[in-house]
Amino acid sequence: MRAGRPSTGPTGSPPNSRFKSLFVSPLPSRRPQPSRSATGAAGYPCSSVPASALYKRRAPQPQHGNVATTDGDMAEEGELKPAAAAMQVEGAEAAASKPRFRMPVDSDNKATEFWLFSLARPHMSAFHLSWFSFFCCFLSTFAAPPLLPLIRDTLGLTATDIGNAGIASVAGAVFARVAMGTACDLVGPRLASASIILLTTPAVYCSSIIHSASSYLLVRFFTGFSLASFVSTQFWMSSMFSPPKVGLANGVAGGWGNLGGGAVQLLMPLVFEAIRKIGSTPFTAWRIAFFIPGILQTCSAVAVLAFGQDMPDGNYRKLHKSGDMHKDNFGNVFRGAVTNYRGWILALTYGYCFGVELAVDNIIAQYFYDRFGVKLSTAGFIAASFGMANIISRPGGGLLSDWLSSRFGMRGRLWGLWVVQTIGGALCVVLGVVDYSFGASIAVMILFSFFVQAACGLTFGIVPFVSRRSLGLISGMTGGGGNVGAVITQLIFFHGTKYKTETGIKYMGLMIIACTLPITLIYFPQWGGMFLGPQPGATAEDYYNREWTAQERDKGFNTASVRFAENSVREGGRSESGSQSKHTVPVESSPADV
């Protein structure tokens, strides 16, 4: 058989490619070409192999048998060395064709698709870990309200005591959420999330030994700190999913986490009844029931630590150590967040969608129990339906935000948030007016829950674009604003006996409408606002580069911000005006590994 000509089988086809290199000797004048980063038909990026890896000559290795190993042995080595080189090149090409991730990603390695029922690492595993841990924190924080009639009778709580405890449960997370945002920026969402969950777990277990109004208030206050895990959830999703999918990812993760507020209304009465039926007294049964959310919260923290990953490329500690990621400091992160007025407006408006949801979680079961005289389990089921709407309402808000962005850009996201949240406020007013009808109250409450929770999803369809350097703190400010809104709402309308509950609900709706108006003031130079278009010549890259000094840009610290700007092209709307980066490389052809 002559070297350089492949043999063929009976049909004239070449032999198996695995053995092809044994029959074909590469021409010495032609060097093997490096395999470029490739993308499959479905857009799956493939890791590139440096040319140096292909051109690098391996040192002669000892051989067995009669195969020569010196340059003087021309016969056998001349036949086998080129074959080995060809196999090495083919192996390198095979490695180059293997994708780093199971999901399609953009130039920043963020997923460009959302596979809800997948556990693909690291993107979808981070999604499931984040929403489940937040879900468990919601269970713990709102485990007491469904059992409040029993706790009230056991401890002799007054209406003022109950109101103070409700305020304490959400007030504790105000500063915790801001701190959580900073922690995410500095150490990553994995460690930040697991830390706050584990630190608040003892308070959940202590709920079983409370004996007075003050101890009840304290456990609710410290348990409420766990709601700061919401910030790490949203930050984590913004780190794992590309701009066209970030609204959906944030919406589903936040919505399914908030689902805990509804599930607990159903779970705790059922757990109480089950414990009581096996022989426990009511006094003991409601105390034992608190161990269920405590155990779930502990398990979720362990899972986050064991299986979570901060970024698509690895954990913060590893990336900082390797130099692949700039380690920022608190001063720069803080300054970038507090000087961006858009973050403050979103914190205010979030206070009257998510904040209202928290307030309703605290009062709704007791409202139906007292106003319509239903059983405790029935009141819990009704209240659960309010929170359970999160399974589709908040994800629906995130999906709507992404859809509006695909058609109208950032201006569509802003208009969507204002319209949906204003409708939610109007329905809240109606809920307070129809207090004379049990059926009408339930129907309006469900409609109200859909709109107010969808507004939460729409809000976090905008938050990831406010800042890149201070994303965590902006998320923390917005999340903290939700808790501040809940505290203010409960202090004004549901504290003591100043207003009847139905009257407070009506006034709360009017406040939602008023506090949603500032959305009209949000303006991005590169994308525009609700009423004004983008500034001529403004780019997303310029907007995000303002957060970095010239010296930092020269050192490449802003690389991640530039990549995000490239991937945010469609926020300018269909015309993509004002959103293009200065770079001419299209997003679709950006390398998967940077």
From TrEMBL:
What are the recorded Gene Ontology BP terms? nitrate assimilation
Domain Major facilitator superfamily (MFS) profile span(s) in chain numbering: 126-521
Main localisation: membrane
Q: Which GO terms describe its cellular component?
A: endomembrane system; membrane
Compositional bias segments (type: Low complexity): 1-15, 25-37
Q: Which GO terms describe its molecular function?
A: nitrate transmembrane transporter activity
- Family recorded in the similarity comment: Belongs to the major facilitator superfamily. Nitrate/nitrite porter (TC 2.A.1.8) family.
**In what way does this protein cross or attach to the membrane?**
Multi-pass membrane protein
Q: Where is this region: Disordered?
A: 1-45, 566-594
Highest taxon of source: Eukaryota
Listed InterPro entries: MFS, MFS_dom, MFS_trans_sf, NO3_transporter
Which SUPFAM superfamilies is this protein grouped with?
Answer: MFS general substrate transporter
Instruction: Supply the name of the protein.
Output: Major facilitator superfamily (MFS) profile domain-containing protein
Task: Cite the entry's keywords alphabetically.
Answer: Membrane, Nitrate assimilation, Transmembrane, Transmembrane helix
